[in-house]
Design goal:
448 residues; alpha+beta; Outer membrane efflux proteins (OEP); four-stranded antiparallel β-sheet; two-stranded parallel sheet; 6 strands
Length: 448
Amino acid sequence: MKIIYLIGLFFSCSSVVFAQDKLLTKDDAITLALENNFGIKVAKNQVEISDNNQGILNSGYLPTLTGSANASYNRDDTTVEFPGQLLDNGAPRPDINLNKAEAQRYNSSVNLNYVLFDGMGRMYNYKRLKETYELSELQARETIENTLLQLFSVYFQVARLTENSKVLQNVLTISKDRFLRSEYAFEYGQSTKLDILNAQVDITNDSIALLNVKQQLANAKRDLNVVLNENLNNNFEVDTLIAFIPDLQLSEYMSEAKQNNVAVLQTEKTLKINEYDIKVNKSGYLPRLALNGSYGWNLNQSPASAFFPGTNNTTNNIGLSANLTWNLFDGGSTTVRVKNSKIAYENQELVKQQIELEVDRDIQNAKAIYENRLTIFQIQEQNVITNQNNFERSKEQFQLGRISSIEFRQAQINLLNASTNKNLAKYDAKLAELQLLQLTGQLLNVEF
């Protein structure tokens, strides 16, 4: 499973639907997890948010354009009196009444503002957002890796219990056959009633053991459906074939671990972000130059008065201006921000060194655990072969009446324990290998 394929599935998964008892392959399980798992969905949304933040619309490089408009209306009733004034004929000058005198005002404007230079803070902040987006991708990758480990932990549990149920089913079949043989032998006087009772007891024990494993298997399948966010009652079979990566390839992965480990890569991205934080804060020492442009339209309609006629006044105006500001002293807040960002950068360098050391330790521990579990698996494989041969020979001897049913049962139990221990060792070794692959940063680059 290549990383490009996995990332493609992460952003656009096609549905995988499996019917009752259909084989759920490892690739199908991965596809369903990438499409449905809640944690991965949240990680995908976080990546989309970071992608939006790193776009040109959030960069500060684009101008701002604002528009405004206003309208007002007034209506006045006015009476103008001329006390003591006379007309030419000596009559008192009459009052002037102005009723329903309407005044209307309309204006609108468009303002354009663009920052030509802001101390390069905008540029470094834009680069910082780019790094933040890449950091979110690494965080999403970490979520995918952790989910895959969780997925295969449950998937292999289902596989192990599936194989154990088959082993126990075979054991039960042998015990039932032994019971029938004991009955026939008793009828012909070749055995005692005790042999029949022992066979019945063993059938009961084997049946109970099989029922318990089947219940555990059903529970494990429901656990897997939770990880896949599928219907809890979906039934399926899983792939029980396991292939291990050659030692030479693992050694190559380990040698490149610091370049690929997701935790180390995240610390490097965070270190780069802190470096840009310093430069953004330093931009406060430099001046800021901005351009402003405006266009306005005004209409003022005034009514006639006692002495002047009504007027309509229309105005169009265009304005251009440049604005240079330089904060020569801001009380020291810029200096404090720069100092703190430098300290944060130094702290992140220390964190990176610590994580690199811890990753190196974890890889060596994981390699040792993997080699130990793989050796145990190989020993258990040989142990199964030995117990299988012992069981077949005991079976022949039992059928010839040369050994007792108790000795035969012991050989049967030894084979059962060897088989279940081998199954456990096989999947434990594979999980240890996957954990080692995650630490080397290669979990998404290998075939499962």
